[in-house]
Amino acid sequence: MEETRPTVLKRIEKLMRNLAAASLIGMALVTGADVLMRGVFNQPIFGSEEIVAILGIIVVGFALPYAHSQRSHIGVEILVRRLSRRTRSAVGLITNTATLILIGILTWRMFLYAASQAETGEVSMNLELPEYMVIYILAAGFLVYTICLAVDVIKFFKKSEG
């Protein structure tokens, strides 16, 4: 179904997938460097835990839209596979609609939470990075995921009309 997505959405998914991959590599490099520095020089990298946590947030938030477009989420395939094509389609619609509603609410609340964090000026413990930026980044990933879900739900109804 990924090939029928709007071109803009495909480009955003690709960019986010690449940023998620780069963040995953960054997590491995920072962790490896920290272990090396601790072992060889007995001097850890200051704030490495925060850096790895922030990169992990980027990985999760930015990988979701691509994972959805590839249908690589965990499903109850053994059960659903035995249903008729029409029933499988209905289950997919219900699942996508419920996920759209839940992720939409989560995204909205994350943006509100990030705004409240920005007002209070919360910063991370060691590096004193503004926490609201990380929350906005994660919320942006969830926003794109919400749009992907909405496109799939709309596509279902357009297909059933024609």
From TrEMBL:
Alphabetical GO CC annotations of the entry are: plasma membrane
Q: Which InterPro entries match?
A: DctQ, TRAP_DctQ
Keyword line: Cell inner membrane, Cell membrane, Membrane, Transmembrane, Transmembrane helix, Transport
- The answer to keyword Coiled coil applying to this record is no
Alphabetical GO biological process terms: C4-dicarboxylate transport
Please list which residues make up the signal peptide: none
Mark the transmembrane ranges. Answer: 20-39, 51-69, 90-112, 132-154
Domain Tripartite ATP-independent periplasmic transporters DctQ component, residue spans: 27-157
Per the record, membrane topology reads: Multi-pass membrane protein
Chief location category: membrane
Q: Look up keyword ATP-binding and say if it applies.
A: no
**Where does it reside?**
Cell inner membrane
> Can you name one GO molecular function term for this protein?
transmembrane transporter activity
Question: What family does the Swiss-Prot or TrEMBL record give for this protein?
Answer: Belongs to the TRAP transporter small permease family.
The name this protein carries in UniProt is: Tripartite ATP-independent periplasmic transporter DctQ component
- Organism, by scientific name, is Pseudodesulfovibrio profundus
